[in-house]
Automatic annotation (TrEMBL):
Residues 1-32 form the signal peptide. Keywords: Signal. InterPro entries: NapH1-like_2nd, PAP2/HPO_sf, TAT_signal, V-haloperoxidase. Residues 264-400 form the Vanadium-dependent haloperoxidase NapH1-like second helical-bundle domain. It comes from Micromonospora chersina. The keyword Signal applies. The lineage of its organism: Bacteria, Bacillati, Actinomycetota, Actinomycetes, Micromonosporales. This is PAP2 superfamily protein.
């Protein structure tokens, strides 16, 4: 794996985003009534953040990078448009125009709801000519970014291209029970990143050898604590595992919202935070899948059922194993990248951040530092029985490295 580097020193642009984040509970509002208040005024940034989240909705893994791409395109366009506006209502209108144009293009089935949301924003901002011109500037920015990203290999067909697994062999990935589903996201590693240029430079080294002590320790841990009927996994560990069974994009939507809503920065600063978060996590997802389909490492369920070390044909993980190779962990790579962006550009949370999950009804987790989310993702994938610990730790390191490099490269150039 490429050697770890410290987080990038905050640049002039990064310092513009250095406000702390506030506490928030993740919700997924409908498009109507999404406006959030800062004092007595509607916060247009949070308003359109919620519109974007509602448009994307709750997604499954095979849809994640494409959905992250939609976020990135919309908010990069918004950042360009907002930085050309003169602040105030014009900046808000530019933001709304850019995100609206992106979402109606990429999610046309939601056009009526999106039109309603835009009308509500414009009714609030008023009929001034500068406002209407800013909306058109936002739309133009969205069209430009959409054109730039055309053919980037992150459409659903390219990401989920067919894949034929190699013959079964020790350590080699095979479709997993109970459904033995075909591999997904096999083409994701070929996508074009937003911020980094050389994907192979960020690929990790190979996973531990099957005869290594590290592999034996990790296998024993996953076997013991990740089993569906484990007696060594606590109730809290089970809750964390089920909580983070959701996609990373869904899991972090509330965390990023807390950072955006709690920021004291202006519109451009807060829009850039959203744009860079999604650009960096898309890049991390591309690197993850390039490595997954290079190494084709088997999952714990295959290793435990068919491997040479105390095979147990009946062993079953707590969480159903995703249909793609094991190394590195996509959840922890995403978490590592998200951590770097939030720590570098938003600063620490100003208060506790409470999050909920569609995969763990009734469970609320509270976080006071962005690193805690990474920690829980590392643990959760082991406690779920779907990853080895080394895989999770490497994933987090790769995500941090990719995001740090992306932020450093962004400094001094337009998105």
């Amino acid at each position: 794996m490429a050697s770890a580097r410290p987080y990038p020193r905050p640049s002039r642009r990064a310092l513009l985003l250095g406000a702390g984040a506030g506490a928030a509970v993740l919700t997924t509002p409908g498009l109507a009534g999404t406006a959030s208040a800062r004092g007595s005024e509607v916060d247009t940034v949070v308003e359109w953040y919620d519109v974007t989240a509602a448009t994307i909705g709750v997604i499954t893994g095979p849809l994640q990078v494409n959905s992250s791409r939609t976020w990135a395109i919309g908010w990069i366009a918004a950042w360009r448009a907002v930085t050309r506006a003169r602040g105030g209502a014009a900046a808000d209108a530019a933001l709304a125009g850019a995100v609206h144009e992106t979402l109606t293009t990429l999610a046309p089935a939601r056009a009526a709801d999106l039109d309603e949301a835009l009308a509500a924003t414009l009714d609030r901002l008023g009929p001034a000519a500068a406002v209407r011109a800013a909306v058109e500037s936002g739309r133009d920015a969205a069209r430009d970014v959409l054109a730039e990203r055309a053919g980037d290999g992150l459409d659903l067909a390219s990401v989920n291209q067919p894949f034929t697994p190699p013959p079964a062999a020790p350590g080699v990935w095979q479709p997993t029970p109970p459904g033995y589903a075909a591999a997904v996201q096999a083409g994701q590693g070929d996508g074009r990143p937003f911020l980094i240029e050389d994907v192979p430079a960020y690929l990790p080294g190979p996973p531990p050898a099957l005869d290594s002590g590290r592999y034996a320790r990790d296998l024993a841990e996953s076997r013991a604590v990740g089993a569906a009927q484990s007696t060594s996994r606590s109730e809290r560990q089970t809750d964390v595992a089920r909580f983070w069974a959701q996609t990373s994009l869904n899991g972090y939507t509330g965390a990023l919202r807390a950072a955006v809503a709690g920021s004291v920065g202006g519109t451009a600063r807060r829009v850039a935070l959203v744009a860079l978060f999604h650009a960096a996590t898309v890049d991390a997802q591309i690197v993850t899948y390039a490595a997954k389909y290079r190494d084709l490492r088997w999952r714990p369920v295959t290793a435990i059922r068919t491997g040479d070390i105390a095979p147990d044909p009946e062993w079953t993980p707590l969480i159903t194993t995703p249909a793609h190779p094991e190394y590195p962990s996509g959840h922890t790579t995403y978490a590592g990248a998200a951590e770097v962006v939030l720590r570098s550009l938003a600063g620490p949370p100003a208060g506790p951040v409470q999050l909920a999950s569609p995969t763990a009804a009734g469970v609320t987790l509270t976080y006071r530092d962005w690193r805690e989310l990474t920690r829980d993702n590392i643990d959760a994938r082991v406690w779920s029985g779907i990853h080895f610990r080394h895989t999770d730790e490497v994933g987090a390191a790769v995500g941090r490295l990719v995001a740090a490099a992306g932020l450093a490269r962004w400094d001094g150039r337009p998105l």
